[in-house]
Amino acid sequence: QGSFGLGRYDAPRKAAAQKAARDEAREALERGHRIVQEEGFDWGWSDPIENRVYQNCAEAYRILSAQSSGKAIDFLRTCCSDEPAEEYHYLIAVGLSDVASSQIEFEKALALAPGYVDAWVGLGNCRLSGRRFALAEEAFTRAIEIDADSVAARWNRAMVRARLGKLEEAASDFTNLIGRGVETANLHAELASIRLQARDPYGALAEI
User: Fold this and answer.
1) Residues 109, 14, 195: CA angle, nearest 5 degrees
2) Dist CA 146 CA 135 (whole Å)
3) Using one digit for the tens of pLDDT, what is the confidence trace for 81-134?
4) Distance between the two ends of the chain, CA-based, in angstroms?
5) Is the separation of the CB atoms in 120 and 110 below 8 Å?
6) Global pTM?
7) CA 7 to CA 113: how far, in whole Å?
8) What is the pLDDT of residue 30?
C-alpha cells in the first residue's frame, strides 16, 4: 500500500495514488503468475535466474491475492536475500506504507538496474512526498531520459516544477503529454491552474 501521489496531498488524491500503486504491483505480479501458469519454467529466457524471478513474483502475487501484503513482502525479502533482483526491491517498495523505507527499496532496485524507469518514478514520488522537490524533479527527469513516453514521470515532473515555480517548464510537460495523446480532465485542470499562476487567464480558459 504505497503512499505516493501526483503532487497534491489531499486525501482523495492520496487514496487514488495508493490504489494505482497497488494495481501496478498486482499487474506485474499477475503477469509473472500467468507466465508461469501458461508457459512453465522454460519460457524462453536463456538465464534461469530470470525464470526464478518471475516464479517468485508469481508466488508473491498468490500471497497478495489472499490479502496478505505483509507476508508477500516478507517472502520477497527472503527472495532478495537468496538472490537479489530489482523486481523484488521494486515490489517491496510499492507494498510498503512507510515512504522512507520505500525509498531505500527503490534505491536498491536502481543500484541493480539503473535503467529501471518505474523505480526512478517511485523514487521521485518518495522525494515528492517528503517535499524534496528539486530531488524529485531530478528523479523524474532521469526516468524521462530513459523513457520519453513515461506518462507518470512527465506528469509528476510537471507537478513538481509547478511547486518549484517553474511554470513554463511545468506547462511544457503537460502540453507534451497532450501531444502524445494523453487527454484527461485532470490534466487540463492542472494545466489551467498553471496558466492562472502564470497570470494567463485566457490560456487557463482555453483548458476548461
Assistant:
1) 100
2) 17
3) 878 888 888 888 888 888 999 999 999 999 999 999 999 999 999 999 999 999
4) 33
5) yes
6) 0.69
7) 26
8) 56
